[in-house]
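In response to the reviewer comment on reproducibility (Comment 2.3), we provide here a single inverse folding case reported in full, input and output, so that an independent group could reproduce the run without further information from us. The structure tokens appear first.
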């Protein structure tokens, strides 16, 4: 099995925290869709197995018009084996999920929405410069459910200076009350060259508090656990049967191709990514050239990546695989560092797999880096 990720690089406006590749200039959107369709055809031989999951990310894929989305699905059906498809996810902004669009989506293979709610409070949404308001965030979820879409995930952002602990608890309670079965939740991160970064540097906004974020992360984990959610990845919480199959396949090393500007692909020991420039992407595809860079991952690269992903998920790290796949030298290093992490109560071994302790989850990436092997 394999997956396909399709990057739609357009948004109505720029969120203050976002450093993803996108444009607010929609003039090239129709040409971009044509280029994406052509790239799907150019790369059809890269995958010989049936497609299990498709994920439309961005940017804002819900910005596509019905005929544009139909054209992409036609190309997918024409070029790829979709007989085993299980999950088709579309990222959407609340203000895009109108009754008219939801009615159209019913006629497509889409069976899962990832909705960029971020918060149910106006103060947070204004800070983030989101295009929707709090009422639209709530209404779109109820409308999607009314149209028969129950496989919904929403994004929620914690740790903003505008988000008190009480507001954060109300955000989580609202999601549960609305019947949401999957939540992806991220700390508000200050990325370079974003509006958020600029405002903090100028002293117009307060710096983000690590302590504030850590406390809200703990609240997030504890609250959702009481509500029957499973934290199957550091930032992803789902009730049984509602885990993201597409993202889970990423973490399990299932091959996928990324279509569109800035999209990444993975297969075995090879990673690739498209140019993160709309004009260059369109120009290259129109000249029958794939605008792609390819990196062959060394054994050490593969080990470090497996450590990082393993510790972020419930799937953990299997020590037997470390020895079998990466050899004695890397395994000796792994075992030495592992003992120290166990002694510090940062990781534990359950059912033969190495996973983080509850207290260590907020520091997952830093802990993983201690297991990284550097030649």
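Designed residues, in position order:
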């Amino acid at each position: 099995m394999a997956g396909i990720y399709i990057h739609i690089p357009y948004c109505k406006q720029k969120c203050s925290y976002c450093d993803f590749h996108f444009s607010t200039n929609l003039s090239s959107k129709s040409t971009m869709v044509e280029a994406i369709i052509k790239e799907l055809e150019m790369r059809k031989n890269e995958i010989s197995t049936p497609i299990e999951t498709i994920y439309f990310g961005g940017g804002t894929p819900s910005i596509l018009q019905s005929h544009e989305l139909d054209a992409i699905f036609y190309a997918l059906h024409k070029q790829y084996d979709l007989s085993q498809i299980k999950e088709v996810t579309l990222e959407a902004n609340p203000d895009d999920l109108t009754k008219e669009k939801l009615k159209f989506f019913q006629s497509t293979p889409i069976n899962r929405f990832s909705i960029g709610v971020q918060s149910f409070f106006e103060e947070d949404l204004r800070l983030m410069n989101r295009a929707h308001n709090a009422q639209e965030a709530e209404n779109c979820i109820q409308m999607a459910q009314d149209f028969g879409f129950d496989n919904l995930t929403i994004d929620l952002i914690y740790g903003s200076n505008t988000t008190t602990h009480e507001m954060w608890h109300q955000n989580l309670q609202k999601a549960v009350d609305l019947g949401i079965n999957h939540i992806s939740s991220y700390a508000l991160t200050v990325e370079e060259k974003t509006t958020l970064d600029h405002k903090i540097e100028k002293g117009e906004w307060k710096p983000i508090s690590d302590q504030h974020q850590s406390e809200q992360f703990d609240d997030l984990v504890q609250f959702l656990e009481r509500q029957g959610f499973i934290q199957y990845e550091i930032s992803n919480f789902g009730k049984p049967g509602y885990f993201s199959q597409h993202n889970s396949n990423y973490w399990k090393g299932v091959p996928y191709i990324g279509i569109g500007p800035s999209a990444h692909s993975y297969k075995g020991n090879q990673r690739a990514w498209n140019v993160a420039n709309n004009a260059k992407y369109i120009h290259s595809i129109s000249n029958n050239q794939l605008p792609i860079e390819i990196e062959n991952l060394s054994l050490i690269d593969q080990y470090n990546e497996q450590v990082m992903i393993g510790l972020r998920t419930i799937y953990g790290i299997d020590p037997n695989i470390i020895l079998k796949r990466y050899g004695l030298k890397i395994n000796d290093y792994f075992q030495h560092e592992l003992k120290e992490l166990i002694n510090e109560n940062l990781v534990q071994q359950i059912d033969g797999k190495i996973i983080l302790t509850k207290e260590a989850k907020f520091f997952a990436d830093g802990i993983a880096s201690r297991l990284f092997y550097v030649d």
